Amino acid sequence: MRKTGAHFFASCSSHDARLNQLDGLRGVAAFSVVIYHFVCAFVPSATDPDATTLTRPGEVVLRFLFSGSFAVAIFFVLSGFVIANSAAGRRQPLLVSALLRYLRLALPAAASVLLAWLLLRALPDAVRRLDAISPSWWFKWTYQDPIPPLLTALRDGLLDNFLTGGSQFNNVLWTMRIELIGSLLLYAIFAVSRGRVRIAVLVATGVLFIALQRHHYCAFILGALLREGWAAGKLPNLPAGRLFWAGLVLGSGASLIALLGGGPFQKAETMIEGLAATAVVFDLLACNRLKSLFGSAVPLFLGRISFGLYLVHVPILYTLVATGVVGFAALGPMALSLWFVAFVGISLFAGLVFTWFVDEPVLGFNKRLRRRMETWHQLLRTRFA
Q1: CA geometry: angle at 155 spanning 71 and 129, to 5°?
Q2: How far is Cα 57 from Cα 34, in angstroms, rounded to an integer?
Q3: Count of beta carbons in the 10 Å neighbourhood of residue 230
Q4: pLDDT of 365-384, one tens digit each?
């Protein structure tokens, strides 16, 4: 990964080397989320979590190929891996880790909400007009006219989405609370335990989350356990690449399996995706071909802008793209294909600009603040020793 990469994590090795393929994987997963949300808007029956049947073969294919929840599971496993690695390699007070992690998430989140607020104020009826001609379950998670005032938007980005677990200014922010809590939990576990005790605590915490059906947090635990095995050189040797493809198929098809199986499969869908994401990350640590593929130029570029791309694409979709589709009555396959290309191009450009002017400056600010707080901490320890 690049030093300036826009990602949730900062380092991916116990020896301070970069694992480029993990940054590339995050970028590809973020791009998958972009595709998924376009499908949510314009082929909603293929992504509706409450759907009981899929009436067209194309819906089955789309549900299998573009699973936003599986991409998010990959985010969480990756975060678990690198947060654990950071916590193991850096000794700093838990409050410092908590503050820095909060700022790392909250400042870009607030900037994305500000962007969403500006677009929604300019085009407050875009979603309503699109929903009238192409209804989607997904639109209910977005503000429509009247749009709340600016102070509400800023509070939403800095605080409310972490408290409520969601935002109607920018609905991808539902992951922020899970990211923050999962990260702080790992910082706490790594601060108070080591070696086999740490492994036992991680396993026990994972079992507790399974019992509580908080499967998203299990993904953090799985990522941390994967990091512990990798750092100790104790990951089992398996045929290279096979686990990756098995995990990709299982994770991508988890929502379809849950739909067809019903009952217990629906309750276990998120857990299945977490296990599948762990398998994918495992093989990226071991398989040289996969390392080369996900460490190549395009995945690394997507990895660099992944956080920005993730945060900006939804406001663009439900304002600019929605207005264009309605204005040109562009609901046919060819027209939607052109709008999809336009949407991807605008989102990539906006993600890059967001990375330049928001995400990378936040990373730099956090780095300087960490150094200053470490200096203050050392001075206090020396003074009161």
Answers
A1: 65
A2: 22
A3: 21
A4: 999 999 898 888 677 767 76
